Amino acid sequence: MHHSNPPRLPMRILQFFARFEDFRFIAGDFEEMYQSIARRQSIRSAKFWLYLELICSIPGFIKTSIYWSVIMFRSYLIVAFRNIRKYKGYTFINVAGLAIGLACCMLISLWILNAMSFDKFYPEVNQIHRVMVENANSTPNLLGPALQDEIAEVQYATRIEWTHSALLKSEDHMAYEWCLAADSTFFDIFGYRFLVGDSKTALQTPNSIVLAKDVAEKYFPKQDAIGQSLSWNNNRIFTVTGVIENVPQNSILQFDMVVSIDNITLYFKERGMDYMSWDWWSASTYVKVWDGVTTQQLNDKLSNFLIPDGNEVINFYSINIANLYRHLTDIDGYIAVFSAVAIIILIMACINFINLTTARTGTRAKETGIRKVVGAYRSSLIFQYFGESFILTFSSLLIALGILYLALPALNSIHVFNLSLDMLYSSQMIIIMIVTTILTAILAGLYPAMVLSGFKPVAVLKNDFKTGRWGSLLRKSLVVTQFFLSIVLIIGTIIVYSQVDYFKSKDAGYNKEHVVNIILRSGNRENYELLKSELAKDPSILAVTGSTVGMPYWRWTTGAANWEGKLESDVEVAVNKIDFNFIKTFQIEITEGRDFSRDITSDSKSAYLINQKMADLMGLDPIIGTNLSMWGDEGKIIGVIEDFHFRPLQTTIQPLVLLLRPNDVNILYTRIQSGNIPASIDFIKTTWEKINPDYPFEYQFLDQQFNVSYRSIERIGKLIGIFSSLAIFIGCLGLFGLASFTAEQRTKEIGIRKVLGASVAGIVQMISREFVVLVTIANVLAWPLAWYVMNLWLEDFAYRVEITWMVFLLVGGFSLIIALLTVSYQAIRAAHANPVDAIKCE
Fold first, then answer.
1. Contacts of 144 (CB under 8 A, 6+ apart)
2. Is a pLDDT exceeding 80 seen at residue 126?
3. d(C-alpha 687, C-alpha 681), whole Å
4. Helix, strand, coil: what percent of the chain each, to 5?
5. Predicted model pTM
């Protein structure tokens, strides 16, 4: 006789199947049949029969499962839609909050994807690096060729010079275009796709120019651009040798055209200056390494690089171009901040869902109890409640997409974003939308599903279940959380805007009001003196001057300043070349000595003005008459000026040296009277067109340009302000829903109180008191965190506002008023209800 226990796993699976399928045997017969076959035949035959029965049962189980799943899903769907339709107000609050939260998440995701995608579109992107050096924005002009010759890991090297906007002119069109100059290896490194022309020969001659597609179509709309001639700044003719695809927006290199860097060399050679020098630092250097060479291997060769024609060693380093945008802009911090804000808003929307669902626990409890009595499993009830959450969340997703389509163009127009709706269709964005929506549905529905499905049917039907204490505590905690997060965002918004206003209103050390600046180019720079003298003839023109580098972006620094007793060899000082009347035009105070004078000819060759920071650095007394050497040229300090902000106020004032070099002026400044600004501008324009008829007149007010330097911070303020408003709106939606629920739950109590003589004001106070306490607690918790976070942010600025208690008190009062206004509507409505109806209400 053969006796054996049947295998446990297939037995359990078959017994599980038997719950869903009408088999020939009931669940208990499987083991009896197994033993019978084992006795009559063998254990092996019994096992064979058992596994065969299991295999044959699978199709029936699948068929039955699908059938009942469809039936159950249809049932759950009907119930879900009935609940949604029955509680329209709660549904609106949930959908509106989730839609706003999802829209914010998608918006921030678009921005993050755009920021993270910068310069990753290049072929062989891992081989492209920018060579840099600490505390400098450029590299020596001879570095590129030296790297290609001396470092075996470097396949190609190119120098890039920004020539700013150049005037392009064809027979039918004229406009300023953004131009860069580069070596012939530029296209070997970056691999831009040529629509017409050959990348190998496109920049081999000085008079060659490569155009972006849009620019080529602008100047040659009905003909092939290759071989066509273009006038460049009215003083040179270029031949189009190539047309490339448009440069993507997510590139740190933005240009409309590329010319050979030999043009820059020729330009300076005509003026007696040697551009090709190790002492001249104005180029950006990019390299392409051989496949397999890592950034670390390249940096090992770049560190302690020996200048070929001398004994100077410079510690260069490289950044892969895929990481360059993040390295130069500190975008990682912004990504972290806005990701946190988007998550906060989405969590607040989920809190609304949880709050309002648990608030209606009593209403849904009987439904749960009856379902359990008639045989519903807890798993099926969980599935139902999650189903309702998924329906609401995916409905919110559709609304969120509509919000995004409407909002994004408006946000782009006010310079908050620069994003395209086409990015919504990218595979990454679609995955983010699906994953975010699913996670939101799970997060919003998890707690309600667990709580509602866990009620015991007997207790529910006897109305003896207890959820009030913990449910009430949860709702209060979530309300505090919502307003806590909202208050932190509002305080952050106010402090950011205060910092921007502080920058705009702070005394810059010079008068930037009513100053018009005009960029001069190589074709019209020779007319500078004539233009200056003609402008001075008008009485509304108070002063005219010029400089090489324009405010507030003086980034030209040098370590070539030397004086007797200099202690530090690597001191970097800012430098600018200016014209007469510069100090007068900007109304900068001279604290010692004198200004540059036309009557003293040596001023244009061997005299320097320095700021107070430079005087303090030198530490000499007396400072006037002290010898100072710049790039080997000896001169004397003739004056000390008050420190002024020639760079944005995010940075401290650096030591500064000013040289008198009228022939090197690139920007013309004109101070005009404040009485009739349009007439003054018309006079400047007429004078310009008379002297420079071949150049369009373009100008900008210096104070506007000054404010533009804070646009990135202002953009942060706008974004946080928008998100704060949305957070408050979502919080008020939830508060409105809870106040409505509270008034509904206390209908009979309100009726009895009114019958006993309670006033409307007393009832409103009774209902509102609880929410006022919750918002007050949120303020107390939010203030320390907001103070700490904003202090960390302000530490990045050399000049900053002080965070005062008035900000916290204002935000606290504002949040309380918003909460009271939100709750009062429902409270007043409940207080004015007929007490007879209230007492009769069940």
1. 157, 158, 159, 183, 283, 285, 286, 287
2. yes
3. 10
4. 55, 15, 30
5. 0.73
